[in-house]
User: Fold these one by one.
Assistant:
Number 1:
Amino acid sequence: MAGPVSDERTAVVLPAEGPLAPPARQGERTLERRRRAVAYLLLTPGTLYLALFFALPLILIIYTSLKSGGLLSGGGFRFTWQWENYTDGLATYGSFYVRSVVYAGIATVACILLAYPMAYWIAFYGGRWKSALFFMILVPFFVSFVIRTVQWRFLLGDFGLIFGPLKDLGLLPQDFRVLATPLAVIAGITYNFLPFTALPLYVALDRIDRSLIEAAKDLYATKTEAFRKVVLPLSFPGLFAAVILTFVPATGDYVNSSVLGGPNTTMIGQIIQTKFLVELRYPEAAALSVVLMVGMLLIALLYAKALGTEDETLAAGAGA
Amino acid sequence: MSAVATAAPPPVERVRRRRWTSFILPVFTGAMIFYLASPVFLMVLYGFNDLAGERQVARFTCCTLVWWRQMFELPDLNRALRTSLTVAFPSAIAATALGTFIGLVLGRYRFSGRAVLNFVIFLAIAIPEIVLGSALLSMYVQVNEMRPFGATVPLGYTSILLSHISFSIAFVAITVRARVQGLDRTLENAAQDLFATPAVAFWRVTLPLILPGVVAGFLLAFVLSLDDFVITNFVNGQTDTFPTWVFGTSKIGVPPQVNVWGTVLFLAGVLTAGVSLAQAYRRRTGRAA
């Protein structure tokens, strides 16, 4: 996979290389080539591992999804090009995909509406407290997200810490409830995925050159105009990264819907999980999972095509 | 904030308007910080809840240390915590070793498979956990059925560890990649000019330079492993980690010890992150001086 590329060309293409590398001397070039050979050698175990434990399973699950038979009754699974796993699965569970996409979509919008002003203020007005403030936002996420979600159940409970007192005061009807409703699930997803939205937005906003805003103001732009025509467009890469890092994982989420939801809020993740781990119907479950995978793959490809996969806002979001 | 001090103060009316609106965003940010932290407050508080039963309830009665004293009294919880830690350490070490070089090479060299590898790394981060978890389970089941070259992957500790390494590599790789891309290449050229072999140049120059990225990658991998629920829940068989055990008990009620351990792990995480942040800050200011 190591294509021979001359040092000069590398120096021009990669920004990290420094703008004007002096022409390589003979000895330096040999050393460079050797160092590169060593680097590739060291790259091999990692890529091999990813091939075996990331790429291969994603291919094998397609194979599994076309099997038939039962683990308990049918004497094991056999590969029979069982396309019915897909057609039946989509016919039966199509609405759960729609629901998952809707919940994840609403939660993503909520995440951006909450995270953008916050990231904006910290990036532009945080001053010397910038890092500390941002650390404050990430601190809660040192707690296991299962525990945090369980605590939300106590906060949102029918007679929990928020609604209990309000009901005692007669401000809410006794049968008012949020838990087990779509609102609770969407709120849980919003809460749990917020750092994936906030980090890319923050990085994108923080790296905006302040002199551009000065220039806009010199050209008689009002504060609002400067924001709309300079800051907002420049934060788009962060916005896209935020959307993809929030929406894609949220669609497959099943912890929020199973801890905070009820029978009417079941998401596709719960269906897949139950089929895999409770009913042991691997082929059908695999087919449902593949549908989710293909959808997400398309979104990821669109994003990569539009913005590439190396933007630092993406790296930042991963840090969450 | 002292607009008065500037040489040519803007019109009074504009100053007043800015004063009033300038409170909106900081107040909002403060409220957000409180909102994000609220379940954590609750967790810490419920670790001290003086209740009659042994499951967390909404009513809070102040205060008892009994759950802190009995934090080791639940054998299943102890076992789950031990599994979590014995997975997280080797997983983070392996992912750091494998991911660092991917990040290094991706950040520095151009080669024909580079775009593909970059996309795979990106995919590994964006993919819904449930898809990877179910794919890994399908593969392990298949392997155990077919036994290629006599290999099996018992569902439990082995499958959890293998899976955690898999999803952590990408995170280490992009953390290191970001660091490498910001590096001054001339330092390594200088090492070469001074006749350092590639191995020596790597150990004495490159590694120390990317070390903050490597350490950050390791910590990230460690936290990700410790906190992972979805993928673990798919591949763990009968073995519980801390998150899967908590999820299991959440159906019948979480014992208060979970809040105690949650608090302990939280403090450990904040302390580690705080120390490494402070060190990074000191390094930066030290260099500037």
Number 2:
Amino acid sequence: MTMDFAKDRPIYLQLVETISGDVIKGKLKPGDKLPSVREFALESGVNVNTVQRVYKELELMELTETKRGQGTFITTNQTVIHSIREQMKEQVAMQFVTSIESFGFTVDEIIEVLKNKKGGN
Amino acid sequence: MEVQQLSFQYKRKTILERLTFSIPQGQIVGLIGENGSGKSTLLKLMAGILKPTSGTIELNGELINRRHTNKIAYLPDIDLFYEKLTGDEVFSFYQSQFENFSSKKANEIASFLQVPTNVKLGSLSKGNRARIKLATFLAREAELYLLDEPFAGLDPIARESLMKAIIKFIDTEHCAVVMSTHEVNEVEPILDQVMLLKDGHLCAMDVVEDIRHERGENTVNWMKNLYGKRVR
């Protein structure tokens, strides 16, 4: 399936986030093999060079390991996965704060709403 | 490919004026700009079909001329195949004309695109004719692939399948690709760089991911800003 991308950020970053998200959600498990660069390019409808950059970035984050002649695998190191999950949590929270501030809401106001929502469920 | 100070005039009218740029090996470059900005003319010059009025075009150090059709594959924007031929017949004609054409690869691409090759082109849909045309084009092993509006007038499904065939069957490590297009948003994910033509001038050339990274905007907005026009 060809993916849709946000307009304002590099495509490779969006793909890195998608894969990180899949690992955090457990859709990709530690030790899972990623498709080859060309297969991934074909699935996502993206330039091969962009996918190469995505794989390089994932490797730098230590989220993946490349085994010579075998391919690229999701790390089995739980510490790395945990820390990426924490980073992602922080990032999502910050985006949320920016978004509510753009409407003129305060964080406290929104926390009230969230608490009520949680109580209601 | 290296292009230096390239100008082209037709009946005293300047179509392209002093373009200088290079197309790096291993990259896919999108050629964008309004109708009449000179995109098709530039592709024909790069293909060696037209001769520059002044300036030079070199491929790996050699000046381009008509003979370079063995190293450059060019996909025109018009339908040139006989309607009475089948895909298979077109493939065997190409086999007889181009040393670097592979019928086997053409069939492989046609089957990837799920288009029948034993049917006369005249009875195929426009989308399927475009699929046969692209299969014929991609089945040539070239150093440079030039595509003039490969997606124009096609439905979204046909456009997506053609883009996937380009990703799958062009080994970009060993060649370069330049394609003109108006479907900038859709094509952007498969491009490395974009060149913007305006009234026969090279208005800008930039890396797609850098445009997004540095400006926080996609190529269409970049293009609109550079054109400096209100789009109504």
